[in-house]
Amino acid sequence: MGYSRKSKGPDLPGFQDLVEQDLKTGKFRAVYLLAGEDTLRMEGVINKIRKDVLGETGSAFNYHIFQGDQTPVEKILQQALSLPMLGNRQVIWVKQADKCPGGNDGMAALEKYLGKPVPETILILTADKVDKRKKWVKVCQEGKFLFDFTPPAGEALVQWVLKAARRENLPLEPDQARVLCELVGNDLLSLKSEIDKLALLADDRGGGISAEEIGRIIMDQAALEGYEITAHLEPGKAREVLRTWYRLSEWGRSAYEIAPLIISRVRKGSILAAGRSSGMDDRDIAALSGQNPWGLRYLEPMVRGMGKDGLGDALSAALSCDRRLKGSPLKPNIIIEKLILDLCRTDRK
């Protein structure tokens, strides 16, 4: 998963705006449209609204969840227009709201409701992405109901990891947080899961886990994911890459798992070299290719050692390896070893 993030317009507020304007003040809107892939913070916001508005006891009667791709708009609006049961307010969460089935009449009814929502109902619509050309989305934006929940990227993501680690009393260093981001991507739920694993390990040791130990654990995980085998992929480093491959093989990793990692690494290096030769800077290359600008540093030795033309030949060799794995009589391990030796030739450039 890449780190690139398209900039949002100044009129589109995000997570922090929602926290400051609504969650801290307790002044909740009648409608929320939360759009983006930041599901961890999105669900946290929804749970906060539910607890503050309904309390724990009111949730059983006045908290309703609908799957948008399975629920007609008319059914959702029927619930939104109904009175709360044994309480003053109700909260409705519609997942995948952009996929709700409904004809022109249903969408017209939705737009009418969004223009004048029921005060007793808090209607929360969530979606990975929304089409801002659609009228119902425009109504939400005009009503200040639309919030951007694109996951943080780059250094903002690193700071999120460091903050999450501090909450778990983990002595995580910035460089270690960056490695975690490079390995896991910008999925906050997955990053939180990795931080929780480290916290459990620290708890098992009675809290006695140092930053150095955390670093070793992270890099061990990196090796298990094939990270190390691609980090050393450059001319003259065949011994290091083969040594890593043999260790991964002993641990049960197959050639079919490692080959895609190598192909991906070479492809990223090819993109970086081609972009630079066209006069682009690394930040623009990262944004266009869905990579983390910080992560490009790991491609530098390979790009410098192979050059643009050498990387083109290397990519062809990697893709040829993939085809041989699917149809060659040679053993898969031998095919990977031949690829590593080919890619790490000193005359590659």
List keywords for this structure.
disordered N terminus, 349 residues, 3 domains, 15 helices, Helicase, Ruva Protein, domain 3, 59% helix, Rossmann fold, single chain, alpha/beta, Zinc Finger, Delta Prime, domain 3
What does this structure look like?
This protein has 349 residues and is α/β, with parallel strands linked by helices. The chain has 3 domains: 15-148, Rossmann fold, CATH 3.40.50.300; 154-224, Orthogonal Bundle (Helicase, Ruva Protein, domain 3), CATH 1.10.8; 227-343, Zinc Finger, Delta Prime, domain 3 (Up-down Bundle), CATH 1.20.272. The protein is built from 15 helices and 5 strands. The protein has helices spanning 15-23, 39-62, 73-81, 104-115, 135-142, 154-167, 174-184, 188-204, 211-224, 227-231, 238-250, 255-277, 282-289, 300-327, 332-343, and strands at residues 31-35, 63-67, 90-95, 121-127, 146-148. It has a 5-stranded parallel β-sheet, with helices on both faces. Strand 3 (90-95), helix 4 (104-115) and strand 4 form a beta-alpha-beta unit. The two termini are 29 Å apart. The model is unreliable at 1-10 (pLDDT under 50).
